[in-house]
Amino acid sequence: MARVLVLTADLLFGSRVQGDLAAAGNEVELLGDGDRLSARLADADAPRAEVLVADLTDERLDAAAIVAALAAAGELEHVRTLAFYSHVDVAARERGEAAGFELIVPRSRMAREGAELVARLA
Q1: Number of folded domains in the chain?
Q2: Cα 105 to Cα 64: distance, rounded to the nearest angstrom
Q3: For residues 67 and 52, is the Cβ–Cβ distance under 8 A?
Q4: Which of 8, 64, 89, 116 would staple 99 via disulfide (CB 3.0–4.6 Å)?
């Protein structure tokens, strides 16, 4: 299975994603902000992450901008990216597309198929 980082400030849904992915055999780390994600990616002693799952629903987090900056800096070179958004927030999906996420799905699909989506990317 995969080493997965989950970028979300929503601890309730983030814990659900973490639990679902871990139950499918993935090693999962929940990160609540961009600084923690950056530090984790820069940690040479930490196992290399294979998939990053990011929450586009929280405007305070601005996961699209965080991931775009990390990708531009070359910090996501070997990391596949998956984002989820509220199905009614078309602008969030568009921000995710502009940031270069490989796969962007509605939050409801992430809740139903998260483990399968990660497996497809890993």
Answers
A1: 1
A2: 14
A3: yes
A4: 64
